[in-house]
Amino acid sequence: MYEDRRRRGGGAAGALVAIQLCETAARRRVPFELLLIDPAPEAGRGIAYSTLDRRHRLNVVAGRMSCYPDDPGHFVRWLCHHGEPGVRSGDFAERYRYGAYLADTLGRAIMAAQGVVTVRRLRTRATGCHWTTLPGGDPRARLELADGRTVEAHRVVLATGPSRATSAWAPEELRGSDRFIADPWAPGALDAALQDGRKEDVLLVGTGLTAVDLAMTLDRPGRTVHGVSRGGRLPQAHAVDPLPAATCATPLHGLSLAALRAAVRQHIGRVMRTHGDWRPAVDGLRPVTAEIWASMSTAERAEFVERDGSLWNTHRHRMPPATAEAVGRMRRTRRMRTYQGRLDSASARPDGSLTVSLTTADGPRTLPVGWVVDCTGPGLRLSDTADPLWRSLLDQGAAMPGPLSMGVATDHGRLRGADGGTTRPVWTLGAPRRGELWETTAIPEIRAQAATIAEAVLDPWTAPALPATGGPARRRTRRPTDTSGMPLSTHAAAATAYRLGVDRLLKVRTGAAQALRRSVALDPGFALGHAALALIGHECGADVDVPRALADARRAVRERADTFERSFVDVVSRRVLHPPADGDAALLRHLEEYPGDALALAVAVPTIAFSGLRDLDGTTALRVVERTAPAHGEGWFHTSLLAFMRQEQGRYDEAGALAERALAAEPASGHAMHALAHVHYESGDHRTGRERLQRWLAHQGRGGAHRAHFSWHAALHELALEDTAAVRRRWAEQLSPGKVYGVRALVDSGSLLWRARLAGAWQGPLPIGDVLDTAPADVLERPATAFVALHAAIALTAADDLPGLRRLRVHALRADEVQRSVIAPLCAAFEDILEERWTDAARGLERLLPRLPGVGGSAAQREIVEEALLHALVSAGRCEAARDRLEERLDRRSSPHDRRRLTALSS
Fold first, then answer.
1. 127 phi and psi, to 5 degrees?
2. Which of 70, 534, 693, 808 is the most exposed, fewest CB within 10 Å of its CB?
3. In 3D, which of 874, 876, 864, 863 has the Cα closest to residue 906?
4. Contacts of 264 (CB under 8 A, 6+ apart)
């Protein structure tokens, strides 16, 4: 059946609803037609985000402006990928950039929903909306358009934004003047005032955020911008270094307005005494503002708006610091002046300019001005609106005014008619709900409302279809399965792509990310596909927008998943968002319930692809491998993991035999070859190890995902054999940037260079700068895992980057427990090395060695810290301690390089 479900409005609120509708429909595979009705040249911007003046900035930090309630960093990441790589969540972005973000995100959502959602856009206005009821009882809307056409819709969302100002406050002679700018955001409205050479003063009526923006636009030498308002207050400024919001200790719900004022004053006073700043106190009220407003009586709300509204708005809706600084300069140089009062009259002067009379708190004042600009902001009373669309709904009883006649009455956004009912499927969001919510015009509120509305609009078409009483049961279709035989909540094509991606992960081969991306492109509602992408982005350094993929997985799993899929998504969520202990606990619970899940098992074992379970002695991962053996039989994958764990135990003969058995069954098994590489290294069989790796890389390993890591293993053998020419050749051919990228370059290429320097195998400058250039800045300074952080510290030390090490240490102190307890002191010890405080460096590294297994990775990778310790001991003159460590290592394995160093220390 063809369904025509449409909505009206194309500004920020409309874009947010459209994004949610497209993405939710694509996940649920619900076909419908989406009609966007808006006269603007570009969908998504609206009035607020169309300004081209780069001085106009958002008054909310970028970290709170995401389109998605469950992905707060989305806008910041968009900025980083669109020309502003250094932007932080606490920055205030340009308003025009935010408009571009909305338009781009909407365009991507529409593209991703192709084949499910048909989108049309009409560049006109809706001027009326009338409802009829079809014979089956289904209400249908007929929308009248400004160009004379009509369209019909089953569902309507009115994303109209704030009501336009009526300028009813202005004297009649002013409203008739061509020097009165009633709509300063209209295209060309300010052109005359901005002409070169025009220096006449300007009067802004209103001193809120609109006036602040226009004051900066109209500012020029020789001109004074005046501002007048009833309160005479400019918005307060955001703090340059903001403090966290402070929750009010006193319950505020249900208090009388007088008691509420007293409690809020006490709250602000306590916060001022504690932090020296009132802003955290006001910010702490935001989560309960709607609840407090709802608890007020009508008389209390009216009194609050009249007596407290202006004061609240100037402290709650603040200027960005850069804007406040610019306005401050204007006021100090008298290029901007503000008055508490009102405009009484205006008369024309012979030259066409105006003389305006004000009544101010300081007495009457007359000003000659070139223009008067209406900056009073949107009207609060929608019942007084001249908008023909809202007028038609109010007149026919399809809508009714909200509290204090502000906005309209709704039930969670669904319009209430004059009879109080919600029989018509029409919703609104944002400013039209101000009477009910008070705070409802900022993006954090509107995006949550948009998500709720999208759910409500689509719910009638996505509810499970149940058979009628006495009718036949629904035909059950067999679900496709993953590589472990677990059923998947998707269709066959997406399951095939997912199995291919997982198979490549298990074999440590390239192409896993591409296959997983195809699985979610084929089925945007496939939770495991999104979760696997988030997992490999977080732990393997794949080019994945991890927060976005994880948010998609969590949305999808709420709508369509079984207990197995919900458990796996929970595992990934906890590994990405929670401390390591939480992620490990979730993974262990999952494997206890689903021991045959090969992908989860791969995540648990710290081999080459994933960081694994981060216990100090490695016994937990070993127990998991042994306990899951019955579910896997003697399959090559499980045998590969067991081989790796046996070599971690020092059972090298057994590990080698297991690895050979797995390679016989699956020659391309990267896990088995990796276990064998460790066996050769830890056994001191360096020549055989290098030769075996060379053959595998040339044949079965040609499509390996981590070829650089196998090359790194071969280079370790060459360092042990003191074949410095081979080390440099391998670097140039297999490990230099251009051959290796991103995290892999950091882990393998960067660590090899520093090992080579410590071993005396690299003469001259290290090309470590090339490695740092290929690693993303956030990986170097804000790594997500302790394992990556370890290698970031190594690369920064190799580059003699003391400031970078200190930034990394600061990040580690704010990160998870392993980074705080291991990485932060490791950075401090490396700082001691760079500043040649050798005794301090050696002491710090000695204390850290027992804690290193908690970082993850293999003993061979963590050995680099012991190499640094040996270097510090020798440099500090503690040669006997260095000899003891080398003798202990040589007792475990043969190494020509270690033998020569020991001889040199003993001579």
1. -110, -5
2. 70
3. 874
4. 248, 252, 285
